[in-house]
Design goal:
Elements (H helix, E strand, L loop, with lengths): L1 H16 L3 H10 L4 H18 L5 H21 L6 H20 L4 H10 L3 H9 L2 H10 L1 H4 L12 H18 L3 H22 L2 H31 L1
Helix pairs in contact: 1-3, 1-5, 2-3, 3-4, 4-5, 7-12, 10-11, 10-12
Length: 236
């Protein structure tokens, strides 16, 4: 485990702290001809050696740095087909972490992976997944009759309300699981304060009622999910 953690730390430092924006821009413009692509690869090699503090790991560092170079290069050329940088970013990071995992547990990769899946708390995974998009869909259906009566604010960010709801439900679920109910009250208060000025300026009673219903429904779904998870965990 400590080996994987050190490799991950080296990756985080190399990719986010020791990679200036001008390097990124130069790589995107020049791709394989960019000198910074090679500098970036060398940085990762040196970081692995430094954090492991053992020159005997040079082969491991070489494998990681070469794979990092390959993945970054593929990402640069994939940008011609995939226009969303966020999608490329997460795919790129996922492949980097998979390589680090394989390198850290190469001696017992299959056994460790099987054991890892055997220890997954599937009830928790299900609860987390439910309070994200499935709960958003459920809320959309329940509020469908009200949403038709609300004038859309074109100044709002696209889907901002949905993502705010997902994040708040994840927080509520977390606080219930760790038994910190008082923090949920603070979360409700914080959201009310942020919403107060908007509702005051709009002077729209229907919008106020709609947001209130949506907020209570969102928190209610998260709390109910938390109760179900705790009940299931107690029965396991």
């Amino acid at each position: 485990m400590i080996l994987f953690i050190k490799l991950l730390l080296a990756h985080l430092i190399g990719d986010f702290m020791l990679q200036p924006t001008r390097w990124v821009i130069h790589k995107e413009a020049n791709k394989v001809k960019s000198k910074y692509l090679y500098f970036h690869t060398l940085v990762h090699f040196l970081l692995v050696i430094l954090l492991l503090w053992d020159i005997g790991y040079w082969k491991l560092a070489l494998v990681i740095s070469v794979s990092h170079f390959t993945i970054d290069l593929l990402k640069l050329y994939a940008s011609n087909w995939i226009k969303k940088n966020s999608v490329l970013f997460f795919i790129d990071q996922a492949f980097h972490i998979i390589v680090l995992y394989i390198c850290a547990y190469n001696s017992n990769l299959v056994e460790h992976t099987v054991a890892l899946f055997q220890h997954v708390n599937w009830a928790l995974v299900t609860a987390v997944v439910f309070v994200t998009y499935p709960a958003a869909v459920v809320m959309g259906k329940l509020l469908e009759g009200f949403s038709d009566q609300i004038q859309i604010d074109h100044k709002s960010l696209p889907n901002a309300g949905k993502y705010i709801g997902i994040i708040e439900r994840l927080f509520v679920l977390l606080f219930i699981i760790i038994g910190r109910w008082e923090v949920i009250g603070l979360l409700i208060t914080a959201k009310s304060v942020f919403r107060f000025n908007d509702l005051k300026e709009s002077n729209n009673r229907k919008l106020t009622e709609y947001i209130l219903i949506g907020t209570l429904l969102s928190f209610g779904i998260a709390i109910l999910t938390g109760f179900v998870f705790i009940t299931m965990r107690g029965g396991l």
